[in-house]
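Standup, Tuesday
Yesterday: got the pipeline producing C-alpha cells again.
Today: sanity-check two examples.
Blockers: none.

Example 1:
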Amino acid sequence: MKSKDFFYELPQELIAQEPMAERSKSRLLVLDRESSGIEHRSFEDIREYLDKGDCLVLNDTRVIPARLLGEKEGTGGRIEFVLLKNLEGDIWEVILKPGKRAKPGARFVFGGNELRAQVIEVTDGGNRLVRFEYEGIFQEVLDRVGIMPLPPYITRKLSDSERYQTVYSRYRGSAAAPTAGLHFTKELLKELEDKGVRLAYLTLHVGLGTFRPVKVENVEEHVMHSEFFRLDEAAADTINKVKADGGRIIAVGTTSCRVLETVSSPDGRIKPSSGWTDIFIYPGYGFKIVDALITNFHLPESTLIMLVSAFAGKEHIMEAYNTAVNERYRFFSFGDAMLIK
C-alpha cells in the first residue's frame, strides 16, 4: 500500500483560515459506508442521524498555549519551542527551531526570564527533552508567556483562542485541538441528550504528529507517534451498556476512534485504561467497537485520511473528498465535517 494512493488535489483557497461564526453552522457531508451514497447537510442536522440509545464518544482534552518564543541565554539568539509531551514533572519533549542551537546543556529564556529551560537530551527523532524552571505554577506561567499553537496551514491570527477549543474541553495537555468536536455547541449536545443519545468522554492529548504526512513510500513502514490517553470507568460502563443494548458507538474525531480501538477487546468491550497509544489504523484494519465516525477533512497522505479510509473504504473516501472539493467544502481544522455511517 503506497502513501501516494491517499493523495488528492486541494486548492489552497479551500483550506479554512478561521472558524465559522457559529460552530454548528458548518457544512456536513454524510457518507453511507454500504451504499457509498453522499448527502450534503448542515452540521446541526447531525441530530437527525443519531438515535435514542446511541453513544457519542468525545475527547475532552484542552489545548495548551504550547508555542514559546524566546532567546538563547547569553547570546540572545531567537528560538521557538513547541511543547509536545509532559514526560514527568517539569521535563517536556519539545520541537525547537532552529534546532542546531539546542545541544544538551543549552539554556533558553522566555517571557522576560519568567520561564527558563535547559536542554537535557536529544531524542532519536531530533526533538529535545528540556527541563523548565519557573516560580509559581507552571500552567499559570504558560498561560502568560505561551501562544496557541495553530496548525502550520493556518496563517491568520485567531481573534478568540476559545474557538480552537471544544465547548467540552476540560483536561489540559494537547498541542492541537480534536477538531471534529469544534462543531458542537452546548445547546446541540443538550438536545442530543434530551433525545436519548448518551455522551461518554475520554481524553487523548493530541500531538503535532497528527499534521505530518506519511513520508515513507510504503504505508506499512510508517512509525506512528504516540499520544497519552485516559478512559475512566464511567465512560467504559456507558459504552459497554450501549453496545450491549444494541446502540451505536459514534466516535467524535479520529482521536476518540484511536483510543476506543486501543482499549477495546476483540469482542467489542471496553476496559478503563490510561497510557500511551501509537495505534496506526489504515486499510485492512478490523474495527472492534466504532460503528460511526464524525470527522473533519484531513490532509493528503496523512495517517488520518488513512484511518477514515480504513473505516469507510479507500475508494469511498477518495470519491467523497473529490466531491467535497468540487462542492467547495472548507478543509482541515476550521473546516467542515463528515459523518461516516
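Example 2:
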Amino acid sequence: MISFRSTAFLSASLLLATTATACVMPVDVESETKLIDNVWELQQIQFNDGKLLEANPPENYTIDFSPNGEVFVQADCNRAVGSFTLEDGIVSITMGPTTLAACPEGSIGTEFLQSLNNANLYFFQDGDLFVDLAFDSGTMQFSPAGATATTGSLTGKVWQLQDIQFNDGTLLVADPPENYTVEFLEDGTLAMQADCNRGQSLFVLRDDNRLIVEPIATTLAACPEESISNDFIRAMENSAIYFFQDGNLFIDLIYDGGTMRFAEAPTTPALVGTVWKLQQIQYNDGKLLTANPPENYTVQFMEDGTLAMQADCNQGQGAFTTNADNRLTVEDLATTRAACPEGSISNDFITAMQNSAIFFFQDGDLFIDIIYGSGTMKFSAD
C-alpha cells in the first residue's frame, strides 16, 4: 500500500493557506483534462484528526469523471452515480443513486462516498490526485487506474454468469454457470446462452463504462422450472454500467435495479480438429434420438473448411463456415445411401447436420442448434 507522503500535507496546507487570502488556487486547463481523462483508484483517506483509512484493494474504490459532468463511483461492493463541477481548483461532487449491498467487514465504502460529498480543493503530485475535504478535515489520495492493477477486457472472452443480485434482496444463482454465458465480440455483436436458449444482439460501449444492449433475439425453448433463462435475458437487456473487480465482470442494471456477476469461462475445446461423437438429438417437440453407439455417428471439422462425417452405415463429406457469433453453416453435404439397420438414426443425423445453425460448448461437449429453434445435437470428444 502506498504510504501517504508528508509533502502532500505540506502542499495541501500551502493551498489552504492561499485560499485564506486569494479565495482559491487556479488550476489550469491541462489539470482539468488530466482529472477527466483518467479513472482514479483510491489509495487512502487521511483525516486531520489522525484517522487513516486505506483502500484495500484500491481497484475496489474508484471514481471516473465524465466530460459531461457525471461521476461514476465504485465504493467496494456498491456503485454510485453523481455529478461534479470544477471551478478555480475546486471540485464539487454531489452523489446520486447508490446501490445498497452490504459490503464485507473492513470495507470503507461508506466513508469513501461521504468523503466524495465533501470534496473541495484538488491538486496533483507525482502523478497522483489529491482531493482535500471541506473544513480542512482530511485528504483523499488517488492513483490512476492501472498504476496498481489492471481492470480487464470486456471483449474477447466468454463470461459465465455467477449470480444476479437485485436491490430488493432477491438473489438468483446461475446453476450451473456454464449454462448462462455471454460473449461480447469485437464487431459489436454479442452471443449469449441462457440455459436452454441462445440469443444474439448488438451492444455499444461508452467511454464512461456505460453498456447499452439492444433487444435480444432468442430461441424460445421451454427451460426447466428452476431455470433463470428469462431473468438473465431481461437483465442483459437492462445493462447500464460495467466494471471489473478481482478478475470478475460486474454489470449494473438500469434504474439501480441490481448487479450481474460474471467469471471468465475456462478455455473451451476447439471446433476444428476434434472428432466429435454424436450423443443425442433433442428436438424441441420433446422427441429424443440417441446415438447407439456414439462412435458410429461422428463429424470432424477440418482446417480447410471441409467436414467429414459418419452417419452409422453411411459416410459424408461437405463444407462448412463459421462466423464470429458462433453461427455454423453446412453446405454441399454429399453422403452414401446405404440402407442402415432398423433403429439407425443415420438419416436424422444427416438432416440435422445440413440444418446446423449455432454451435457452443458446455462441460467440454459440443452442442449444435438446428435452424428454426427446432432442436439441438449434443456431441462428445470422448
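Quick observation on example 2: The chain is about 15% helix and 45% strand. The chain has three domains: 6-144, 158-264, 275-380.
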